[in-house]
Amino acid sequence: MKHVLVVEDDPHNAVVIRKILEKRAGCRVTLAESAEALMRHATGGGIDLVIMDVSLANARWRGRAVSGVDLCRVLREDPRSAAIPIVIASAHAMQGDAERLLAESGADEYVAKPIMDHVGFVRQIRDLLEEAA
């Protein structure tokens, strides 16, 4: 069973994403709200994919406020987590936002929130997990 780490500070969004992934994709899901929890899980092994919220209200890493974009870069810079596929999730869905966020973060894929197309989202996650295998 594939293990997905969801970094989301909105409890409602976290529950929705978890339910979609568990029920429709058959994944095991771990939720993380802090940068410390993210790094502990991602660098400890056993995480197959990360879904990262862009706007993390109270996230701090090494004493400074960080966004999901910043944390994606931290994951990419650490050899223990550099190869983990990342899907960056954002409520910013204006034209050009996906491309800009992907370029800034180094993430592999983008998904707009709220996730309306559950089938498409599950297909996106499965495809990434297959590519990484």
Structure, described:
- The chain has 133 residues and is α/β, with parallel strands linked by helices.
- It contains five helices and seven strands.
- The strands form two sheets. The protein has a five-stranded parallel β-sheet with strand order 2-1-3-6-7, sandwiched between helices.
- Helix 1 packs across helix 5 (118-132).
- The longest helix is centred in the N-terminal third of the chain and has 15 residues, at 11-25.
- The relative contact order is 0.18.
- The mean pLDDT is 95.
**Could you give the count of β-strands?**
7
User: Structural class of the secondary structure composition?
Assistant: alpha/beta
- Proportion of helical residues: 40-55%
Q: Strands of the biggest beta sheet: in what spatial order?
A: 2-1-3-6-7
Number of discrete domains:
1
Number of helices: 5
What do we call the CATH topology?
Rossmann fold
- In whole angstroms, the N-to-C terminal distance is 12 Å
Taken as a percent bin, the fraction of beta residues is 15-25%
Task: List the uncertain runs.
Answer: none
Mean pLDDT across every amino acid position:
95
